[in-house]
Batch of 4 targets.
Target 1
Amino acid sequence: MKTWEYITRRLILLIPVLIGVTILTFVVSHVIPADPAMHFAGGPKAQPETIERIREELHLNEPVLVQYFYYLNDLVHFDLGKSYLESRPVTDSLAQYFPATLELTIFAMLISIPLGIVGGIISAIRRNKLSDHITRFIAIVGYSLPIFWLALMFQYAFAYQIPILPLEGRLSIGVSAPPPVTGLFVVDSLLAGDLEACGSALYHLLMPAFTLGFATLALILRMTRSSMLEVMGADYIRTARAKGLSERTVIFKHALRNALIPTVTVSGLSFGALLGGAVLTETIFNWPGMGRFAASAVIGLDFNSVMGFTLVVAITYVLANLIVDLLYAVIDPRVKLGGV
Amino acid sequence: MNNKKVGLLAIGMCLLMIAASFSGCVETETEIEIKNPDTIVFYTIGDPKTLDPADAYDTASGEVIFSIYEGLITYKGADTETFYPSLATDWSVSNDSLTWTFNLRENVKFSNGNDFTAEDVKYSFDRVLIMDAPESGVSWILSQCMDTNSTKIIDDYTIEITLTDPYGGFLALLGYTVGYIVDKETVEAHGGVVADTENEWMKEHAVGTGPYMLDHWTHKTEVVLVKNENYWGGWDGKHVDKVVIKTADEPATRILALLNGDADFAYIPYENLEDVEGEDGVIVQPYDSYDVVLVILNTKSNNAYLAEAEVRQALSYAFNYQSAIDDAYIGYMSRLPGCIPVGMPYYETQNNGVPVYDYDLVEAEKILDDAGYTENDDGYRFNATTFRIFYNAGNAERLKMSLSFQQELTELGIISTVTTEGWPQLLHRMFATSDWDIIFMGWGPDYNDPDDYIAPFVGSADIGQDTYNTGWKNETVDEMILKAKYTTDHEERSDAYQTAFDIYIHDPPMIFIGQRQYIRPMRDWVQGYSYNPVREWYWYDYYKE
């Protein structure tokens, strides 16, 4: 099967996945006995006409099945409805929050993937040596420390006691956001030639991206290490060494390529998961991303926002998986796309 | 050195590195220099829902609108009792209290340079009534005494407002954001007024006559205001050029922002106040607010005992008010005598502001025993019926009060449960079912008039009230509420409120717990700050030095 045929098939499969996800989310969110309309209209102070109008807009007086078909009808017209908590279309909210999360995730992965792979290789080839112990210790710390604790400690240390990094946010006070093109401040400020904004955006990314990437770094490090150790013990590595190849060639050309498959899987899935928004990191660093948006939507029963968020996450996951599968074929030519 | 030792050494080194990076944690505080001297930065929770004064009904929106737009009257500093001229310079009222004449301020410009005239005033009021606040329903505040025929333009700088009914709180409601004046030309250029429909442009943009204008608003992130060079009040004296209102959900982030000087003001929950109290350069000053804390009692619950006045009286005696003040609100609350908070006009009509009920379990027991609700052999009253207490999830103060109340009820021989629910679920329970007995609630002011408290609290559904769906009704109280509402005579209003109080306090549909104190910890370099419960923030008055 050609690559593009494989991609097309996978993308078509996205449709039933999305339908399944929307049904599940819709039913779960709508069966809770609650009055979101009154909540949106202002609680006890709400006027009866306002509550009724919102109920009608959301079709809350109809059976759940009918409500779902209204939703589906809007969806195929690319209308995700209105976010009542934010009082604007859900697409506007997603257009603001998704790029913020994407930027944070990209930088978290830029920190965690190279460091994790390099750390994993060092750990494996210098097994039970000092460097192995240090990297393993870092991995254990990354695994076991709750991310909110780490975030709070970083803030306390580097924004308060030794104030060298900004406490929160995406830009410093007084720095204007660049004109939106991609929504990624680093990219947009470069496109606009605004180096001050670019510097400020990078400066603000450091702490949250490192915090967010730390757990992933630990995962990738452990995965690369164990995978490398397994490969390094394989017969073909012994053969390569017996042929007199340099250790560098053996590690990078023969071992690493094979050892990377599980690392790619983990990285891809982590990327997908982080794009769904890291609620704690985003909340503590006041990062206006998908995590904070989703958390407040779920608590406030803002159905349209919850559905919009779920759709984006589902699409992201499927695409991240697709990219991982495509990467398998690049790394290991024996992998056949679409094969059984 | 064997591998184990090497490992231990590595771990030790890493711990040392971590410890070193946190070495500054102990007593290294130094005086911080004023950050951003021309900007006031406020770290808070909550994002505005809209910037349109015709549809705004939440605190976060008001914080912004109060400094961008203006009304005909205003408040100054902490004074809640006097109406000061703003876009109107003076006013008069006819003998029948129906017709109000306002002389308007001349040479006032909107931030876009347009002139302010009587046209804008009529347009703004009519717009509220025609649009009818589709998002929030806030238009009721004007529509209770005005319609689209009410406002007449006499000349460019004089308007006459004829009320549909006389209303004692009329001037006060003009001081709320729904009575604020928009620029007719701007609104007409961006969608105009459509009945029952929100104006999308006005939600996100703002052109007013106030001291600041909108620079930008990024949802859930920040609202940035910059000074309006056209402001009629001028910029002599000390003011800041810019105001940044940041939305930060995490209390720890707001605390650190205040401590490191990024924030000039921060919203800090009561339970976290001790983290900033006593810190260098931080002021924690409580102010009496109009935010009241109540326990709502459901007289039409399927637990029929709550329909009895004696039972509700006993519950009022069983509530431990001092524990609520000390434990739940860490001392930052005072007692509430009745519906009208202390400080608001006419609060003294409620037993001179002295609460009728105090914590007294013996009195509670006596009332219940006298009413025939004695303990059974197992020590339970009401045939071991369970009283169901609810509060909204995430509210730490209400959790503490609920558990304390449950303990008191147990002492009285009353079985109770405490349940927390999300806000939408709790609203559904309260307004669509009878499956609740006791719910902890709160109320904040819309405008500075007691009618905004007493009517929704103890007015019945027959006069369009009963806001908490208690099912409570007393015809005389209804009559007194309407009488006080439709008169501007001080004595008459006073008598009506007193009569109502004497009735409802002995047949209470709720337990009047207290008035929360308002605290926004701030840096000591902020000058000019004063708290007004009706208009919390007025950025023009503050500066840093």
Target 2
Amino acid sequence: MLEAIILTIITAATPLLLAAIGELVAEKSGVLNLGVEGMMVMGAVAGFAVTVSTGSPLMGVVGGAVAGVLVSLIFAFVTLTLVANQVASGLALTLFGLGLSGLLGESFVGQPGIKLASLDIPGLTTLPVVGKIVFGQDILVYLSFAAVFGVAWFLNRTRAGLILRAVGDNHASAHALGYSVIGVRYLAVMFGGAMAGLGGAYMSIAYTPLWVENMTAGRGWIALALVVFASWMPWRAVIGAYLFGAVTVLQFHAQALGIGFPPQFLSMLPYLATVIVLVAISGNRRATLFNTPSSLGKSFVPDR
Amino acid sequence: MKKLALLAGTALALAVGAVSGASAADKLKACWVYTGPIGDFGYSYQHDQGRLAVEKELGDKVETAYVENVAEGPDAERVFERFAREGCGIVFGTSFGFMDPELKVAKKFPDVKFEHATGYKSAPNMGLYNARFYEGRYILGQIAAKESKKALAGYIVSFPIPEVVMGINAFMLGAQSINPDFKIKIVWVNSWFDPGKEADAAKALFDQGADIVVQHTDSTAAIQVAEERGLKGFGQSSDMIKFAPKAQMSAIVDDWGPHYIKSVKAVLDGTWKAGDVWEGIKDGTVHMADYANMSDETKKLAEETEAKIVGGWNPFTGPIADQDGKERYAAGVVAPDGDLLGMNWYVKGVDDKLPQ
């Protein structure tokens, strides 16, 4: 039972984690992209379409990431090159993604998908209790954790990561030092797009192998909230995503057990729990302020 | 955030609707308001199939328009009002939650005809239509009780509205007619449409011992979980056998086409009156997907029950007692339609507490 619950939690948390870690990098570079939902849903439709067309879920994963990048490039061009307002452009990107994915996906509605295979290592996957949890996941689950470690390492331990943070904290200074603010931000936004696309592809290939319009059902917004929840620290995003996933799944179990709580209250719990933890961990205001990218959401125009 | 997403969805839907509603003045314009995306392969999809049937049947005498993804509640008012102003001759509100906003707009535009699905409030220019899905759910209950090895089904539901409660009760009455001790576990996902949550709910129910899953939500996610686990379930709104060739035992399929054609024709002929139609298996509005993945005996039973319902028998025929054991309908008494449409109590044997 516990094993089954944990497996369900992993499935519920992975798309959130993938999208959140991508957005975290974009925000660290100073770009607030509210289009995560749009990029996710494009990743979902592309992932599903490529999977069904090629018969290979792995190709679908690649397709989802590529779609995410392509959509994010629209956002990058509009906000970075044309210097449009990031908030408005991000919202527009979500609307655009939801609409376009519905249009592109029309012929895929009602078609069964192919599920992404899970790892199966003889001897390890069959271990009691931890076997399936540690060694029996699909590639995107491992990728989500690799991304967390990779991003944490990149941001805190590499020169390139330092430059990215500098761009996000003070774009004028970074520019004065000779770094390409726009170039760095393009790359960060594209990374965010790729990860959101993977999160979406996870929905349509691994979580529920099907395509229907709006199937991400607001998870892009949750991922956005998780970045703030994580106060821009990658490992905290893991906590946020898994906390959210765990409460979501556990409240279903609580309902099925018939504990008699109003289900509306239980449905609210994941959000409530996230808010409570957010308040608790932001007690240290200085640390939070320190982590917030100071140039977040501000447009940059090179003066020369 | 969720609200924002809904708003965004509505705005988008408005744009989509505007495109599909390019007009020519001499035709009758028939308009539909859907709560989900037409690509949900469930409830809204089936309504849209009905709209397409109207186009096919009446050809160039009508033009149709629709808005999808409209949030239930006060927000829907704008969509109905826009349709009324844009010259729609008849507007169909396809979801329970549109009831009050649609009624409000109907009163404001007495010359426009409205029809509302699955609700109970009407006006001289706002008729009601509904499908007797509970007939199908009674059959599903019988199948579940016959086929479940654990005498336990998991039931995934959206919101505690009469339509849903009626479905749960009909399912239980069907199951109890086979096995009086049959139990269900109920999980509310508080959404008509979130495949991820539906899958999570199905997993939770199976993990807690159910071997059959029933859903009153729209996507194929739950039945796919059943397929993956080698367990059984039922499709919802459309035939989902392609998604679960080994798991789907049957599905309640909505077929709104005949009703829509009838209504639109009546408007064209000038004979339309605000009616209150509630059609079921007999009329073809509700039909059962092929009985599959079950024993021949169960299949025969299901077919017999279906024939009995077509013959005019109502599953809500007494004796029916509620959760507390109080008799609601004495032996032989058929629950009046009004009671069913406002149903807010569980029949005996449901262990859940009805959320208010």
Target 3
Amino acid sequence: MKGKVIKYAKDNIDTDVIIPGQYLKIHDYKELASHAMEGLDPDFHSKVNEGDFILSGKNFGCGSSREHAPIALSNSGIKAVLALSFARIFYRNSVDGAFLLPIEIDEKTYQNISEGDELEIDIKSNTIQNITQNKTYPMKPFSEIIRKIIESGGLFNYDLD
Amino acid sequence: MGKTLFEKIWDSHIVAGKEQGPSLIYVDRHLVHEVTSPQAFDGLRLNNRKVRRPDLTIATMDHNVPTNDRSLPILDQTSAIQIETLKKNCRDFGIKLFDINSPNQGIVHVIGPQLGITLPGTTIVCGDSHTSTHGAFGALAFGIGTSEVEHVLASQTIWLEKPKSFEIKVMGKRKNPHAVTAKDIILSIIKNIGTAGGTGTVVEYSGEGVKDLSMEQRMTICNMSIEGGARAGLIAPDEKTFDYLRNRKYTPKNYESLVDYWKKNLKTDPDAKFDKTFTLSIDNIAPQVSWGTNPGMTCDVSDSIPTPQDFSKGDKNQEKAAEKALEYMDLKSGTPITEITIDRVFIGSCTNARLDDLIEASKVINGQKVSENVRAMVVPGSQMVKKQAEEMGIDKIFTKANFEWRESGCSMCLGMNPDILSPGERCASTSNRNFEGRQGTGGRTHLVSPVMAAAAAIEGHFVDVRKINLN
């Protein structure tokens, strides 16, 4: 999985700024996507490209349980969010509907990656390659259930073996 | 080794799973509302699935509903569609719905306990993060996303990794319990542990500071567990819990034998170990006011707005966040909280719109009127709360003082119904989140208790309610 980084160097990006409340009545995913990150970065929609990654700090996706948040990001083209930590409901929502990969990284990696860097994420080897900077970083491996849900393509394809 | 209350409830609900791996947990109560359920029902239809236990599934509409005259049509077409969709889904799948005109309609986390649907020792889920509210009754209750809503509708179960346990001991006694409320306790806790302090945990609140609280106050505490990052918050049930739930509309027929069982089983063993603990002494805590854009950015009403450096304690990200928050909030470090003037007051939400909250807030008024620069509204949490308050004449106290008295719903907590702030408006709000744009694009939210909100409405700025006679 290859893409470019959009970096928000802050903690506590909440689901209200990822997709503000007034848009939760929208059922069309593309229309929902056109309002993604509107509460934080009104330019997001014009700068995001298919396959991009978001990089951010601690507690990404805190607040409301709205699954509209990963849906809006995913349909904007975001395929993974790399963050120091995630709020639990957002984390599960991201993989349950196979919307995007929530990837936990360490502080050094977070500091090192810059806006616009091209990354290649390999969840088999749990590594992130920074093609722009020619560096490799570790990512925190997924737990058993999260890995299986991802491999199954979502919660409804997951079965306990 | 003994078990915590959370572990006991968890263990008694495991349907399948391995010792160290994920568990399939049985769900005793599934609460459904109009915003996070439509895609879940669509998914059921697509796969030709039924609702596994319609008898354990309860729905109401709360997020979208206007809070003005209920005989008027809903003007926002997308809201009207979402509300109609919930009606159709409940009809098609045989789910009990408390419709917009039902005397039992209200915010899902207010009506669950009021109807006796919330019970100790049960597991409760809802597509809403504030489901943690029900933990006040010793239930394991947490918010889920829409995919999980579909999974629970289809199977009455949910796949989970076992959260860690976190004990928050609330010690001591408040000197003025009318002025220093449950809201101030939970805001103090979040201020101390941080907005991610409880991530990956289920919190158990214990100690005399919690025992002393009424059930409605305990709900305020558990409600905001999610604002401290926790998945759920719970409080061991006691006589207050059992009394609250006795003789409610859906209280089980064998209630007293359940109470006997709960008394024996629903408490943390003395030798149980928590993964994490935090202790808050409440002897000297003050009414709290949030000044920033997350609930951890909170200080005493008697303090001034901190500098980003003082607030951050050396964390550069926090310092930047505080600078940005002050800019968004249009506030300056060093300004006394009591000098902040407000435009709007919102007394409502699943955090603070129960009867206790409205009674306490009404005591502040004492024949005075809302400041002429302020527009203030009171939105009861449910139609039952509204009716009870009206029977006590509480509505008249508010309306005589020029507060608007509304129909029940989530209202101005979350900016997705007609009750919103205009850009730049500053609001003293009894809700739970002060995120940017939460109450409407560009709106500025200060989280406070109901008494603090009512006092701010009267004076037009924040006041220290410890200086008001509230008895």
Target 4
Amino acid sequence: MVTNDVSFVEIETLRSREFLPAAKEALGSMIKEQGESKLIRPVFNWAGRNSLFPLHWGLACCAIEFAAAFGARWDAERFGVVPRSSPRQCDLLIVNGTVTWKVAHKLIALYEQMPEPKWVIAMGNCATGGGPFRTAYSVVPGVDKLVPVDVYIAGCPPRPEALLDGILRLEALIRERGA
Amino acid sequence: MSEMWVNMGPQHPMTHGLWNLRVRIDGEMIVEVDPEMGYLHRGIEKISEDRHYNEVITLMDRTCYVAGMAWEHLYVMGAEKALGIVPPERAEWIRMLSEEFQRLASHIMWYAAFVQDLGLMSPFLYGMRDRDLILDLFQSYTGGRLTYEYMRVGGVRNDLPEGFPAQARQVLDWLEPRLVEYDRLCMGSEIFRRRCDGLGVLKANDCVRLGVTGPMLRSAGSKRDIRKDRPYSRYSQVEFDVATADSSDVTGRYLVRMEEMRQSIRILRQALDWLEHHPGPVLADRLPRWLGAPYAPMGREGYLLKRNYPKGVGLSAIEEPHGEACAYVVNEGGEHPYRVKFRSPVFANLSACSHYLVGYHIADIPPIMGSVDVCVGEVDR
Amino acid sequence: MEWNAEGVRAQLAAAGAPGILSVDPFDGAAARVRFSPESASALFPVLRDALGFTHLSTVGGIDWVERYEVFYLLWSDAAKRYLLLSADLDAKTPHIETASTVWPSANWHEREAWELVGIGFDHHPDLRHLLMPDGYSFHPLQRSFKLHEPEDLEVKVRHV
């Protein structure tokens, strides 16, 4: 747990052409003040939370809304969210659909293949608690029985706006908790 | 080098869902395939036995999440036959309209995902943009984008909003030139043609033998279309042609789906004309209370008045965007269906996959499986 | 040629179809044909070749507690009609001859019916689990299989 005592708020509000000089100056002054160990964590945190790479994995209905969020209208990539097909390149697992017992161990394997630090979003009612299939014999009643979940998104399925909101909340969470 | 087994799935960009294609390859050639299904088996047929008739509609949207309206239509027709209820005329037209809009949305979704697999990125963005316009129309009269819960046993939940036909025509006017643009992007692309022509060939007699239906069968020259052969809803009162191709390969399936979209627009225009001039009720009257009220039946309170309905069995079949879908609803009296059995077209199309994959290269799997339009929700149910 | 119950009955008699118990009218299909399960392997080729039902839509099973029912939905391109076939199987060891030698499309449908309803299909080329994991020993669509509330489940949380 590292508290984010170094202020990076001003960097975020900069225009792109002002970014490099400002960052250079801020980094230079901080290295002088604090030394490297205190510095690397916040930079890591800042970079990590603004470039979350979710795993490109469609489970069920929510995967269609997941795809719509990357379509032309919502364009989730403007938040630095780029789906990757390999778990080795990901730090975010969006569980977008019903998890069955048959797929449970594959989901855990994929989660364990992802490098640290990593986060999980349970998208939709099925991933949160089983949803309309809660009583079914083959459905895991909530993915938090299998992997630790950071953000839950309600909805069946959630609209793409809700997914984007969930991602932004996760960014706020990472900023708070540290990577 | 000796032969080896390769797992493609359950997490693979090719699968478009949750299934595992096990492929035995000899170098680059596919020798044997063994699809492994069931990763999304949610027991919908079992849960339906525990639900009231109208509550099953909720599950139908999620059975095939790219064609929710079509599956709702399939189920309510089966349940109406089992219960002996006749929906009003206007409801039938609204259902047909919804199903055709769903066909458009589903085919555009297929186009976006399929062409992206071939490495063309812009069709995905164009496709998702145009599909959202149709989803906006759905939202204006059902409130939902993917899962609608709109149809009811005995009609539909509510009438179309005021000004809907004009709005819908605007969307159709926008879509029609877009289809030409889609065609130019694909059929004019050397990459697309080289990756699709002559792949995944399945001839018509093999299709019939293996139970393959839908655009895959029609791309082999067959004219089987449940909408024409066994007209349901009001399909006998609208004019349209059955889209066919004769190459029976990936390009043929693409051409059939493109032509089907044009025919859907043609049907939609006729349906909108009819709906504009024929107001009326959209829910059958004199239904039992647990089926009748438009909003209440989703809760338990509406069901307190339990009736013993005459027993019956309902069979319905529709031409879903993926092919022939059937529902078999057994009513043993009482408020729950005794047994609901669904026939999913993708289930049958996938079961034949060893016949159209073996002998091609491993790099041909994404275009071939893309042209099947796999929706795992309805395969596993 | 009339594609109603009488027409189907006459055609079945003309083709010498074995084991027909009854032919009833059915809304939405040409007829509903009940047959005795022992004659399945002789009846299926007659339906396909003599009556022209070349396409098998689906195979399903129903658990009626005191007996099982297996039903087949056939489609004829020439008649443009469905035909519903059904047979009653005994409750102890429900089994019937496979249809996949006549209609290869029955392969997966029968695997599903075996897995979910528990009906055995003799001489099936590949009768193994399709939807549930290997080794799953229940047949969920039997009436004795009750749905549970997930609170009853003891979930072993794996710490990762």
